[in-house]
Amino acid sequence: MNMLAILLKREFWEHRKTFFYLPLIILALLTFFLIAVVGSVQIAGSDIIVSGSVQINEEGLHHRSETNEYSNMPVNALFGEQISQFALLAEDQRERMLNSAYLLIATPLVPVLWVVVFMYFLTCLYDERKDRSILFWKSMPVSDAMTVIAKLLTGLVVVPAIYFMAMMLLQLILFLTTVVVALGYSVDTWQTFVAPAHIMTRWLQMTAFFLFLASWCLPFFAWIIFVSSWARSVPLAWVIGIPIVLVMLEALFTQGEWVRAFIKEHSFPGGLITRLSGGVSDMFQQLLSIEFLVSLVLAALLLYGAVYFRGKADEL
Amino acid sequence: MSIVVQAQGVSKHYGGFAALKDINFTIQKGSIVGLIGPNGAGKTTTLKALLGLTDFEGQLNVLGHDPRTGRHHVMENVCFVADVGILPRWLSVGEALDYVEGVHPRFNRQKAEALLAETNIRNYRQKVKQLSKGMVTQLHLALVMAIDVELLVLDEPTLGLDILYRKAFYDRLLNDYFDHETSIIISTHQVEEIESLLSHLLFIDQGRIVLDSAMDELANVFTEVWVEADQVAAAEALKPIHVRDLLGRKSMIFEGVNPASLASLGELHVPSVADLFVAKLQRNQDPQRGQS
After folding, report:
1. pLDDT tens per residue across span A123-174
2. Residues A37-61, buried b or exposed e (16+ Cβ, 10 A)?
């Protein structure tokens, strides 16, 4: 296990910029943005309305249902004069508005995380061949299987965990901001801001959701690692090109859409996410499906392939 | 003595090009083997094959493992330094130490730090890309020489280093590192530098082994004669493998000719490895030449 720890560290060292400094900078910028908003509301009394179109990522988890007027959020209601009106709203309305705010502050990190993990997997077994450092790595007593496992865990666990902490920190900062601001007004802070924020539940749900996505999209990530292990140039072209060819072949020679649907569902599972309205229990249901089993077998084969090609790999 | 490496019929093709053609050799425990050949002869390919860093055809046994399938077992007892820097550019000196310490059970960190203290590398936060080429090599050598292994593989280890450091490196290799339990393979095309170090010679040219001999047997097989001008015809009748002019005399190298029959031709010497290298390689490139 010491071996695995040092291998994970090594990945972190190589990608310190995108694994650590990038989320840190975004965290700082968003915090600054939040403080600027609060400041403008408090000092200038301005009332910015933040549009509620924030539910891109976790919309399925939080009752999308009735389009609500409160998803358009006057920030004044959270940080300004209108807090007292906000406090008078029904609890579910407050919950919805707060939910939008908590998603809004954390969401910018999600696409960044996706791109960072994608680029990491794309280069993880390619760059070492290109810069010849593979001769150094392979001259150490670390098996190819161990190497691939470490890289998989890095992209699927370590990096999301770091981004997660940044997201939680942002939500915590928002949480504390609402509480501190509310103390200046004569409202019941607990009832108005603390309880409806459901901060712990939110984090647990977020974690469950990401774990689910990581396993659901495993064949997608395994595919990128696989390509990275053998591509002699431009791995991105292969990563995108081969699935396109497969889909075209399917369209040409069969009536089915299975391959197309499978690729789409396991790389950009937008459709699936909207189906997950029931939260954790729905996710469980999906993980018990035959389709998920098939995707796991596929992912295992692709990872085995990556280990095989790492064994054969030479400098480029 | 036990055998550390055994190669039988090892070949390697890059597309249509045969880089290694049916290579056979064995390396005994405790020997220092010079793998010597011109650029492009197949030195690096041979070393990479026995380290499991490249695929090949034929049989190779390194410390009881097939390097193709058991690379990570082989690497527990083998270390490798390549001709050009293979340390990743983003790695810092401190990280390199941490990494090797973490993955290699036979790494001695104190020893590595002591070795580094004798180089120009001071700042452990420096990254490989900030180091000069010579410093990168020094870092890699310090890492490797702090690992207690059974076989050390050095592929042109001192390429790009200045002469002072090269001398110091080979001195240290012989005095501090080598303990007769270890075996060392050094590939180079600069023969003179390591001649005194070696216990065994392997000449390789165009993917073939053209000479495989222990150093102390060279004198039994090869004789260099400084032939006086009036003896040249008689000497050439004995088919020297190499002839060169030597201030009015000719220096000829004979293979497998009894020294007693050569003594009348001129002064006898043990040929230098460099001269032997030239002789064997010219023969390999033009088989007629040695016989003419």
Report:
1. 999 999 999 999 999 999 999 999 999 999 999 999 999 999 999 999 999 9
2. bbebbeeeeeeeebebebbebbbbb
CA distance B30 to chain A (A): 21
| Pair B112, B146: CB distance under 8 Å | yes
Instruction: Tell me whether residues B72 and A143 touch, CB distance under 8 A.
Output: yes
B89 has a pLDDT exceeding 90 = yes
- Ordered by start, the domain boundaries in chain A are 2-35+78-312
The reply to whether residue A13 touches residue B92, judged by beta carbons under 8 angstroms, is yes
CA distance readout (Å), A86 to A54, B51, B206: 20, 70, 84
Q: Count Cβ atoms within 10 A of the Cβ of residue A316 and give its class: 0-12 exposed, 13-18 middle, 19 or more buried.
A: middle
Question: Does this model's pTM top 0.95?
Answer: no
Instruction: Characterize the bridge pairing of strands B32-36 and B183-188.
Output: parallel
3-state secondary structure (DSSP) of residue A248:
helix
Say if residues A292 and A77 touch (Cβ distance below 8 Å).
no
pLDDT, position A18: 96
Cα distance from B152 to chain A (closest Cα, Å)? 11
**Per-residue 3-state assignment (H helix, E strand, C coil) for B225-263:** EEECHHHHHHHHCCCCCEEEEECCEEEEEEECCCHHHHH
Q: Most A CBs within 10 Å: which of B50, B90, B144, B151, as the mutation test of the A interface?
A: B90
Domain coordinates of chain B in residue numbers?
A: 3-215, 217-291
Q: In this structure, what are the phi and psi dihedrals at residue A162, rounded to the nearest 5 degrees?
A: -65, -45
- Nearest one of A115, A111, A121 to A155, comparing CA atoms: A121
Judging contacts by C-beta atoms under 8 Å, the chain A residues touching residue B68 are 311
Q: Which two tokens stand for residue B28?
A: 């005994």
At residue A104 the predicted structure's pLDDT band, cuts being 50, 70 and 90, is confident
CATH topology for B3-215 is Rossmann fold (3.40.50)
Chain B hits for A128, CB-CB cut-off 8 Å, are 88
What was the ipTM of the complex prediction? 0.87
Concatenate the DSSP letters of all residues of A261-286 into one string: HHHHHHHS-HHHHHH-TTTHHHHHHH
B78: number of Cβ within 10 Å: 27
Inspect the interface and report whether the beta carbons of B75 and A14 lie closer than 8 Å: no
- Smallest CA–CA distance, residue B203 to chain A, in Å, is 24
Probe site for chain B from A11, A17, A136 (most B CB atoms < 10 A): A136
Interface of B with A in 46-75 (CB under 8 A): 48, 51-55, 68-69, 71-73, 75
How many other C-beta atoms can be found within 10 angstroms of the C-beta atom of residue B130? 13
